[in-house]
Every structure is written in structure tokens, then in C-alpha cells.
Specification:
Elements (H helix, E strand, L loop, with lengths): L1 E2 L2 H8 L5 H10 L3 E4 L2 H14 L5 H17 L1 E3 L3 H5 L1
Parallel strand pairs: 1-2, 2-3
Helix pairs in contact: 1-2, 1-3, 1-4, 3-4
Length: about 90
């Protein structure tokens, strides 16, 4: 089991210099644990790349679909009551 933050998830859904290494890590251990905001952070990163002209609309749809597939399989760490109150 590994904890994955958005910087590790994004290369799984869009082409990035670290994509091959991150895919290899996922293949070694497919049990992905993320923080509850990871999906929002990843969508933000995807849309930022669209605004920068790196991704087109079709790329965004494909990346979002891949993110949805990952999300269906990962385990989220939820905030506790104290954090929610803060």
C-alpha cells in the first residue's frame, strides 16, 4: 500500500515525463490510498493544462475518464471531525 498525492496521480491520467515510472509503481502495488481532496486537485491540474494549451478538449475528457476509473478503485482518507470543524 502506498499513499498517493495528486502529483503522482496526474501522470497516470495525462502524459507526463514521470508517467512510465508512476505506472510501474502502480503495477507493483495497485492499492492506492489518497487524501479526500485528491480528485479535486487532479481535475484542477488537468484543466490548468487545458488552459495552457497542452491538452485539448478530447484530452481532458479522456484524462477525466481515466481519473474516474482510478477513483473507483482507490481508498480515500477522509478528514476527521476536528478538521471538518476547522
Amino acid at each position: 500500500m502506498r499513499y498517493w498525492d495528486a502529483s503522482a496521480i496526474v501522470p497516470l491520467v495525462i502524459d507526463a515525463p514521470t508517467s512510465a515510472a508512476v505506472v510501474a509503481m502502480l503495477d507493483q502495488d495497485p492499492h492506492v490510498v489518497v487524501w479526500w481532496t485528491t480528485e479535486v486537485e487532479c481535475v484542477s491540474a488537468i484543466t490548468r493544462r487545458e488552459r495552457e494549451g497542452v491538452l485539448d478538449a478530447a484530452d481532458v475528457v479522456a484524462a477525466t475518464a481515466r481519473l474516474g476509473t482510478l477513483r473507483a478503485a482507490w481508498e480515500e482518507i477522509r478528514p476527521g471531525t476536528r478538521l471538518r470543524q476547522t
